[in-house]
Amino acid sequence: MDNDGKTNSASGKSGTPGAVRRGAGRHAPREPILWTLPGFCRNARVATDFGDLPIEALRRRDPLRTVQGSLAHVAWVDRIHLDEEFLRANPDALPVLIPAGALGPGRPRSDLRVSPHQKINAGTGEFRPDFRMARDLTDRPGIMRSPETLVTYHVFHCGAPVSVLIEGIGVSTSP
Questions:
Q1: How many CB atoms lie within 10 A of CB 56?
Q2: Using CA atoms, how far apart are residues 59 and 114, in angstroms rounded to an integer?
Q3: Coil, helix or strand for 79?
Q4: Contact criterion met (CB below 8 Å) for 15 and 4
Q5: First-residue to last-residue Cα distance in the chain
Q6: pLDDT tens per residue across span 23-71
Q7: How far apart are alpha carbons 79 and 14 in whole angstroms?
Q8: Closest to 87 (Cα-Cα) out of 29, 27, 25, 35
Q9: 91 vs 6: CA distance, rounded Å
Q10: Where is this region: Disordered (predicted)?
Q11: Does residue 107 come out as left (phi exceeding 0), alpha (psi in the -120 to 50 range) or beta?
């Protein structure tokens, strides 16, 4: 699947019609959904073969640095836009803020906002991986849900499960 400029919207207003829409009409009550998608908010910097790149600039076939030092190529990129109405009805979709240094010196290098279901290496280093969903890290000092009214999650994978570096932290990607 290629990123052709279309985006998914939880409000059903653009991209795939009714992408995550619940209920028959605009004012029909909606049932909360179980949020399970991973992703990163803007300005997260991913390690590539040609230097760190903002996540929003990531494109198909870009070479990413893996935790092991090899390269993996991006197979698919997408954006998921969540509006205020969706976030109010589905608070589990709110991003998790991981402040700079919250997981150890330079981990992450700068504040990082991720989907609650993004798997992050919360271990003491890359040689002792301990991948956990970001939502499960909110009991650590400084790590918390980030109140937002609009969120865009940038999602990508490399065709096979791989761990890449974003802001100096190993993160898991899988198709």
A1: 14
A2: 19
A3: strand
A4: no
A5: 11
A6: 344 555 667 788 999 999 999 999 999 999 999 999 999 999 999 889 9
A7: 12
A8: 35
A9: 25
A10: 1-27
A11: beta
Question: Torsion over CA of 156, 36, 142 and 131, rounded to 10 degrees?
Answer: -70
Kind of pairing between the strands at 51-54 and 63-65: unpaired
Question: Is 96 within 8 Å of 151 (Cβ atoms)?
Answer: no
**Mean pLDDT lowest for which of 21-25, 60-64, 85-89, 129-133?**
21-25
Prior bond of 105 cis (ω within 30°): no
Residue 86 or residue 125, greater confidence: 86
Report the distance separating Cα 159 and Cα 42, nearest Å.
Answer: 22
